Structures are given as C-alpha cells and as structure tokens.
Amino acid sequence: MEFQKYETITACTVCGSQQLVLVNYHACINECCHCKCRIVSPRPTQEAIALSYNTGTVYEQWLKDSEKRIELWKRRLAIIRAVSPKGAILDIGAGIGTFLQLAKQGGYIVTGTETSETAIHLAKKLYGVVLDAGQLSNINYDAASFDIITMWHVLEHVPFPSQVIKECFRILKPGGHFVVAVPNDMEFKGIIGECFGRSRYKPITFCDEIHLTYFTTSSLNSALRKGGFDIILNGLDDYSPVKNIKRRAKYLMSHLIESFMDVNIYDTLLAIGKKSK
Asked: Across the chain, where does the E strand assignment appear?
C-alpha cells in the first residue's frame, strides 16, 4: 500500500521560520535556517499516517520483543524516579501501554495518549490500561494536571512539535518535568556514511515508523526552551531492548564521549526540561 494524501509544509514546525532549505531531495528533508531542525515536506497527511499505523503491522515486532522491552522500560522508569519519585504521569504516544503499566505498579498515577486504534486496543487487552485517543492538542487536559510528562520517541512523529511542547508546558504543574527521547540526527554512523555518499535518510513508507522531524541536542534544547522549559539534563536514551556485547560497547563508548566531550554521537537523545515554579 501507499499513502494517498500529502501536504506541503512551508514553515518550520518547531520554530515557525519560513526559511527552509531542501537538503535531501530523495527523502524530502528540509533544514530550518533558524533552529537547524530538519523536517519532511511534502509529507503524508495525518489521516494517511493514521491508516498506516492502524494496519497493526507496526506493533508486530513490539509484541515479539515484549519481554525484552520490559528491561528497557524499567531503565526509563528509573530515570523518572531520579527526578520525581511520585506523582501523576502523562505518557504521550504510549504505544501498547507497557511503560504506564510499570509506572502504575510503581505507585504513580498514570494517564496516556495514543493515536493508533490498534495500540489502544492492545494496551487495554494486555494491561488493562485505557489510553486517551487522539493528538494531545485535541484532548484538552486541565492546566497544571501532571507532575511528569514523557515522550519516548514520539516528538519526531507529531505533525507540529512546537504546539505539543507548549501544551505540555501548560498542563504540567509548576516544578514538573518533561522527559523527551528522540533519535539523534548527528548519530556517528549516519554522519560517516554521508561522507562516503550514503544518505542517512530514507523516504517515508507505508506501515513503517514515520519520522517527520529530525533533532540534534542543540535543536531539541532550543525547542524546549522556546516552549518555556529550563533544561536540567541532556544525555543518551539507552533504547535497545537487546543487551548484546556490541550494543553495550557502543552505548558505553558514546556515554563516555558525551560525558567528557559534551558531544552526543549515539543513536538517540534524551532531554529533561523543568517548568520553573
């Protein structure tokens, strides 16, 4: 199957600048001259993307790796505990609900959103977790409702990241934390590949994960600050459910480089913003 409807974006979906430069024709990647985020345009409409995610095939691998992913979610929950050991969590783009189930078992009050009907069904079937359907901007939570908001590899999928960040600021309590993990557009392997003529981007395809925005540490921090947040932590998201020697070595090497040189060459970024009191 293929996407049937597309839309053209004429301004940066992160900072609003209309100064966009096409940097990859094959994958329709445009770079913002102001904030340096990279966005896809033209891109499938949200209606077309929803049809892709609702086929069910996107979550097949998640279900196969569900036991391995438990350890991944436990690592992420430990990050949350370090900044806020209790409170109300909102997980945006909660998928099949595994993280929220673990957080609930750990004593947190949990709420989640999801746009995929398939994922919403699986979350209820597997864990009894009821997710709110739709984009965050359409759900209208009360102001100052949550102590923690998490987006685990979701911000790169949403159509307008700046709107999501502003809404998260509104619905967080004063002193609350916004935890964001996204792919790293400056990942070492991709940069080296481009030096040898290999593109680090691929065109959006039906029934695959769909990234609409590409972030670096700098551009993600800029987006969070523009939304009102203070940055209290940057790091790597230890995202892999598989703990083989090669992957552990890659993560540990990247962690050391980030710690001593303040440069992230890993596959992923982690940022935590705080809403000042």
From this structure: 6-7, 20-24, 29-32, 38-40, 43-44, 88-92, 109-114, 132-133, 146-152, 172-183, 213-214, 230-235, 268-274
H/E stretch holding 76:
helix 66-83
Place of tokens 């199957």: 1
Total-model pTM: 0.92
Domain 46-196+216-274 belongs in CATH node 3.40.30.120: no
Q: H or E element: which one contains 166?
A: helix 161-171
Q: What is the CA radius of gyration of the chain?
A: 18
Average pLDDT of each block of 10 consecutive residues along the chain (277 residues)?
A: 87 96 95 96 88 63 68 94 96 94 97 90 92 92 97 95 97 98 92 80 83 96 97 93 81 92 94 93
